[in-house]
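User: structure tokens for this one?
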Amino acid sequence: MRRSLSKIQAMREVFNKLKNPPYLLGAHVNPSMRQEIPADFPRALAPYSGDEALQLIMAELKKRGVDISDITRINIAYPHKHPGLYPGHHNTAEERAFAFRERMEAVAPQIDWVIAEALVERVRLGRSENQSSFHALTGKQEYDIYLKIQHEPLSFAHKDRGREFFVIVDSTIEQGTTISNMMSYIHYNGGDVLMTQGDHRVHIAQKRDVANDVADIGAAFNNVSRNTGRLPELALAFSISARRHGRDWTPRQAIEKFESALNKHGNSVFALTDGEVQHLVKNVNGAKENFPALLEKLEKTAPKLKKGQWIPQTMRF
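Assistant:
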């Protein structure tokens, strides 16, 4: 029995080494489901004021019961491609990330502002070129920790890391999909994203507005403590589109069907950004998207599950 257990353990160790390359020291994992966005996650800031960014960071730390005087380091992540897979790729967010650090060092020199150069994207999704809702809903990014390009210590890369705080900086935020994917990876691996910065102020979590509460979709999809601010509006748009195409679905039925289909792609309505939902509602209301057809496409293109495999619930952070 002991020999069998030892053999199994040895096989597991070999598998883990194959699964996690030598440079992936912290055994980071790409989540199978995009993580839920906190309902109170702050709007992205425009790249102007270091003082404003510092005040927001301090407010976010306070929500977590942490004072800025208690931390020594904040990491700055930005979307950029793995140089080994995409040599010579021009990363437009890099300059913004270093400019952000320069502003933050001026207003908070006591903090070590670490550029997370090693946190890289493995997949070219073409988000800038393709802003279609289907692409945003189904495109899955994968990340690596590639320490060969890291110029300063990155504690997040190591197994013995403590609680690591992050800011994500991008050059342009359209629907927010790129930001959400990176947030998902960081949070899944124990990091904590405090704020984001783009080219303009934009909501990341779904904006909650009384005017959006236009349909009865049940408590689960309209929970004020979760990222559900625009789901009633989305569900109503889906229901109207469905009726236009001969499907008598209530808003609640429509959003339930959509959530089920999204889960098969590793996504969830609770993980959708404000921009993604707005874009989808606009397309459905404007007849650019046929909801029953979109639903059918999501079902047909869903990855096939292996025998015994199950779809995990969306994880909250």
